[in-house]
Amino acid sequence: MTTPKNIFNGKPIRAEFSTERGEWLFSVVDAVAALSGSDNPRRYWSDLKRKIEAEKNELYEKIVQLKMKAPDGKMRETDTLNAKGLTELCEHIKSAHNTAFIEWLATVVGTSKKFVLKHKDIVVVEIELDGGGEIAELGKLLNASHLPVGTADEKGIVVRELRDWWSSRSIPASRAGLDMFLQTVGLRFPQQLLDKSFGLSLSDQYWICPKNADLKWAEINFFHNTFSDDVGDLLFGRAELRDGQAVSLLSPDNTSDGMLKKKWKILDGKRCLIKGGSKPFNQEVVNEVLASRICKRLGIPFVNYEIIELDGEKYSICPDFIDGDTELSPHGE
Predict the structure, then answer these.
(1) What pTM value is reported for the model?
(2) DSSP assignment, residue 252?
(3) Residue 147 lies in a domain
(4) Distances from the Cα of 15 to the Cα of 12, 134, 190, angstroms
């Protein structure tokens, strides 16, 4: 999918929205062609890339290989950079267009904080998030009947309720280990994690699609697609991930509630929730299992819990009881 304003200085600049990284990636060769005016932008970039590598410049490490459609219509591996990387690239290209190019980039990626709230692929309402990950503005209401339960009345959207619903979608500030995790990934508030994973959850089918990004529910939902273990592992204190390893924030753990440690894990193809207890007795872990055993004996519908051990600690584990066609509504009547 290309950005809506993908022409600069008369040159097309290919771009793809990376669902894993949560940002636009731009073709470096296309940017070089627009900035340098070279008759052979591929050779220009090849020479410049070798120079950047030889200088051990950090920009070299930021280059991402991504398949993009070439002029001949075939998908080919292409060097790409995000907007920040392209801005740094301008420092290596002496061009009269640098300032205008950086301003153009700002208008393109500026749309990244504008989203459409969707229910599967049904467009519900346009929203804009502020720097803290909260809903700053609401745009056009496109389908009132698919607003989240409890966020509408006979007049339409109840703005305060929709904002509260969105905010409560994030990890609560009381979660054990959250402060250290946020420090590790360079964020201040748990709400800032939401757009990193499109607000996706394993409890319902709501999500946010960046405006102008042609993403589909089937492509990214966590019920049918894989997700990163990094968020859950870091929240569980897996410190080894912090040493020079990029952290992927594409995870349903960004939208898990509760104050106790928990993480989602795919085991034998099933989405399973692993939950911890509170010190010193870890009683909640045992209680989950006991409750499921009692329900079984009484013939009451239940979710089965078991106990597992990780790194010397005991946790409860259960399969997700929600799927791509059902929802858990905390505001249900």
Answers:
(1) 0.70
(2) G
(3) yes
(4) 9, 27, 29
Question: Can you give the pLDDT of all 333 residues of the chain as single tens digits?
Answer: 444 457 887 888 998 877 667 678 899 999 999 998 889 999 999 999 999 999 999 899 999 998 888 888 888 999 999 888 999 999 899 888 888 888 888 766 655 578 999 999 999 999 998 878 889 889 999 999 999 999 999 888 999 999 999 999 999 988 888 988 888 888 888 998 999 899 999 999 999 998 878 889 999 999 999 999 999 999 998 766 555 456 889 999 999 988 899 999 999 999 999 999 988 888 999 999 999 999 999 999 999 999 999 988 999 999 999 988 888 876 544
Residues 176, 259 contacting (CB under 8 angstroms)? yes
Round to whole Å and give the CA distance between 125 and 331: 19
User: What b/e readout covers 240-279, taking b as 16+ CB neighbours within 10 angstroms?
Assistant: ebeeeeebbbbbbbbbbeeebbbbbbeeeeebbbbbbbee
Which structural domain, as residue segments, surrounds residue 14? Answer: 7-96
Same domain assignment for residues 234 and 118: yes
Judgement on whether residues 44 and 127 belong to the same structural domain of the protein: no
Burial of 188 (0-12, 13-18, 19+ CB in 10 A): exposed
Q: Which of 96, 129, 147 is the last residue of a domain?
A: 96
Q: CB burial class (10 A; 0-12, 13-18, 19+) of residue 237?
A: middle
Q: Which two tokens stand for residue 204?
A: 């319902």
126 & 211 share domain:
yes
Q: Is 268 contained in some domain? A: no
